[in-house]
Amino acid sequence: MAIFEGKATLVTGAGSGIGRAIAQAFAAEGSRVMIADVDAKGGEETVKLIEAAGGTAAFQKADVSDQASVEAMVKAVVDRFGRIDHAVNNAAVDPEVTPESDWDITVLDRILSINLRGVAMCLKAEIAAMQAAGGGCIVNLASMAGVVGVPNKPFYCAAKHGVVGITRSAALAQAKNGIRINAIAPGFIETPMALANLEPGGMTVDFIAGRNPTRRIGRPEEIGAAAVYLCSPYAGFTVGQTLSVDGGVSVS
Ligand SMILES: NC(=O)c1ccc[n+]([C@@H]2O[C@H](COP(=O)([O-])OP(=O)(O)OC[C@H]3O[C@@H](n4cnc5c(N)ncnc54)[C@H](O)[C@@H]3O)[C@@H](O)[C@H]2O)c1
């Protein structure tokens, strides 16, 4: 039997890549899924994919860097499905590789506003809704860049380290309320974001795969499976953790 029958899940940034795979994984386990994204075209596509597979999903256009939009997004889940059991805060940007000699602080502001401030605003609204309902599970998408430094990614790295920190703090505060909060730190996963970050003449997928202990890069559905696990009863005593899903890179 599907483990999330009758449940409702919110996934931000679910119009592409990892977010789409997470939404599909929750739908495959019987949950109804609210697909939230700034990109309506990608979001609607995810809804169609889930419906074609026999699942239930709806789209809510949302910008996680905008407080009113975030509040409307969480309200839309409860209005549409009557409840909110899980939330996966996945939406993020990784706009460019900035040489350390040429830090553009406006890029820092943009990355933080979506990747960290956005996660904070989502957590605030989701926790309020889950407290009212008596519990829930939240997963934040961090990154390997949230646990180790990455040359030429100082701003993305700062935001993702922040996601790990806010996950731990919020998890400690909410555990007694029946709200479990954890994070996932993916390694290199084949998505539009990751592929767009390969510089021409620089690192290739083959090069990255060759340095991974598994000799391959990750697949979005492998992050979807990790998010399902963290929200499932199998992870009932797992609180405030950042689960690396990276083929072993972080321990090599
Ligand atoms: N792909 C990887 O290798 C990798 C590795 C580590 C961590 N991650 C993390 O996984 C998550 C998903 O990444 P991905 O590779 O699938 O990226 P992606 O670019 O394929 O998808 C990101 C989605 O987020 C949406 N989005 C962007 N800004 C938004 C906003 N302000 N409000 C709402 N939606 C917004 C985009 O429209 C897009 O649909 C991100 O948090 C990313 O940092 C990815």
In words, what does this structure look like?
It comes from Sphingomonas crocodyli. Belongs to the short-chain dehydrogenases/reductases (SDR) family. Pfam families: adh_short_C2. Its EC number is 1.1.1.47. One of its GO terms (molecular function) is glucose 1-dehydrogenase [NAD(P)+] activity. This protein has 252 residues and is an alpha/beta fold. The chain has one domain (8-189, 220-243): NAD(P)-binding Rossmann-like Domain (Rossmann fold, 3-Layer(aba) Sandwich), CATH 3.40.50.720. It has helices at residues 17-28, 40-52, 67-81, 105-115, 117-133, 154-174, 192-196, 205-211, 220-231, and strands at residues 8-12, 32-37, 57-61, 86-89, 136-141, 179-186, 242-245. Strands 3-2-1-4-5-6-7 form a 7-stranded parallel beta sheet, sandwiched between helices. Strand 5, helix 6 (154-174) and strand 6 form a beta-alpha-beta unit. Helix 4 runs parallel beside helix 6. The mean pLDDT is 96. The chain binds nicotinamide-adenine-dinucleotide. Nicotinamide-adenine-dinucleotide binds at residues 12-13, 15-19, 37-39, 42, 62-65, 90-94, 114, 118, 141, 143, 186, 188-189, 191-194.
